[in-house]
Specification:
By secondary structure, this protein is α/β, with parallel strands linked by helices. Helix content is about 40%, strand content about 15%. A hairpin with a 4-residue loop joins strand 2 and strand 3. Helix 8 packs parallel to helix 9 and helix 11 packs parallel to helix 13. The mean pLDDT is about 95. Bound molecules: pyridoxal-5'-phosphate.
Length: about 450
């Protein structure tokens, strides 16, 4: 996840007008929080998050295409808010361990019903990183193996085990040995790959050969942990995942899909797995809590329900009726508002618009993604595919000033992931703003 938050913050800071009150809040933030890269320094304040938008301290509105991935059903969705208020009104907002409760059980049942066929057991926890933790520990117990495979540069959470899966130096450097047995493979990439190939089947086979080789060399692998659609919006082929699934089965390795970003409709299916294959364990988070409460979990195969003497998710808020109420409302909204279908349709419309821009502007080297999970790769030169880092920062800042907020991935890929309730008019506004920005950069 090659990120340079410092540069992104500088570009956006230049476009932000802060009031004295904002300046003071930024200073108080800097004075009281531990500093850490990617989180500090902040460049603006937020006063409201509603629907598809966020509002800064001065009330300026931004269409939010980032939202840390929690804004699946939109911010502050009335049904989510109502469900939470109800849970407080009936005075059941917490369940001590060993007491079950209706909202938690109902949520679990509802999630199992919505999940891909064959996934029938769940466990909840406060956040995505912990859910990854549970998935990996379950795989280790089940296989009696301790190694993991994951892809270089990915992000699966901020906890130690999740960081070990990720391999980003920002999180690992200086900590000494990471989780024993955490091994990494190059992240499949159709656009830039070591073989300069543009033949998807050929690229798939080469990456699959690397996986196969590693599995032959390493008999102790418990799980392959990966997102089904990568963070840079690269969409592996169904063939790739089918072959991965076969290799995992042949080698007794569990396949864990981290759907913390992609679940609940974002890619035009309820779960991104449905485009490809069913994993052994599917991990959800982020939008699960409706963008209001932190909540996450795992959904796994029945055969994995074998632990009697070990614990993999002993979390205080494991069966929180409050969080469960929010998550249930999310599932209800996704269903009632047809957000899965909407993401598919709006995503196709958005992507078509991006392709049209690619046609007009040499700067756009590649458009990728599925549903409302899109990436636009800016290049200095379509032949060399050299990343257009300065231009990407300029475009991001240009759009931000005009009320469209997104982040960059690998410094040059526009990461476009709006709330699934986004309208056609809002997509048009984003496309027009991008077009104006690209013209502006071209002229300069
Ligand atoms: C793909 C993916 N997995 C896991 C996580 C970790 O989730 P959390 O921040 O809730 O721990 C994230 C968060 O950004 C993520 O994007």
């Amino acid at each position: 996840m090659a990120v340079n938050q410092g540069e992104q913050v500088k570009s956006l800071q230049a476009m932000t007008q802060l009031t004295d009150v904002d300046e003071q809040l930024l200073q108080r933030d800097a004075d009281v929080f531990f500093h850490q890269t990617l989180s500090t320094p902040v460049f603006n304040t937020i006063s409201k998050a509603e629907g598809t938008c966020i509002y800064d301290g001065s009330g300026k509105r931004y269409l939010d295409l980032h939202g840390n991935g929690v804004h699946t059903v939109g911010y502050n969705h009335p049904k989510v808010v109502q469900a939470l208020k109800h849970q407080l009104d009936v005075a059941l907002s917490f369940a001590p361990r060993r007491f079950t409760n209706e909202p938690s059980v109902k949520l679990a049942e509802r999630l199992v019903n919505a999940a891909p066929e064959g996934l029938s057991r769940v466990l909840f926890c406060p956040g995505g990183s912990e859910a990854i933790e549970m998935a990996v520990m379950l795989a280790k117990h089940h296989t009696s193996r301790y190694k993991t495979l994951s892809y270089e540069g990915t992000f699966h959470g901020a906890g130690f085990q999740a960081v070990s899966l990720g391999a980003d130096p920002h999180f690992r450097d200086g900590l000494g040995p990471m989780m024993p047995g955490a091994m990494h493979l190059p992240l499949p990439d159709y656009y830039r790959n070591p073989w300069q190939s543009s033949d998807q089947a050929d690229i798939d086979d080469r990456y699959l050969a690397q996986l196969k080789q590693r599995l032959l060399e390493e008999p102790e692998v418990a799980a392959l942990v990966t997102e089904p659609i990568f963070y840079n919006s690269t969409v592996p082929t169904a063939y790739y995942w089918q072959e991965v699934r076969k290799l995992c089965d042949e080698h007794g390795v569990l396949l864990i899909f981290d759907e913390i970003y992609t679940a609940f409709g974002r890619t035009g299916k309820m779960f991104a797995s449905e485009h490809f294959v069913t994993p052994d364990i599917l991990v959800v988070g982020k939008g699960f809590g409706g963008g209001v409460v932190p909540y996450a979990g795992i959904i796994g195969r029945e055969e994995l329900n074998t632990l009697q003497q070990q614990s993999i998710g002993h979390y205080t808020h494991e069966k929180s009726p409050f969080c469960a109420a929010a998550a249930q409302a999310v599932l209800q909204v996704v269903e009632e508002e047809d957000l899965v279908e909407r993401a598919e349709l709006m995503g196709a419309y958005f992507k078509e618009g991006l392709f049209a821009l690619q046609h007009k502007f040499e700067l756009i080297g590649n458009v990728t993604g599925l549903g409302l999970n899109l990436g636009v790769d800016l290049v200095k030169n379509r032949e060399t595919k050299e990343r257009a880092i300065d231009e990407a920062h300029q475009l991001m800042a240009y759009c931000f000033e005009r009320g469209v907020s997104f982040k960059l991935i690998q410094q040059n890929i526009l990461n476009l992931k709006p709330a699934l309730i986004i309208s056609k008019e809002e997509i048009d506004f984003i496309l027009n703003t991008l077009e104006d920005g690209l013209k502006h950069i071209q002229q300069a």
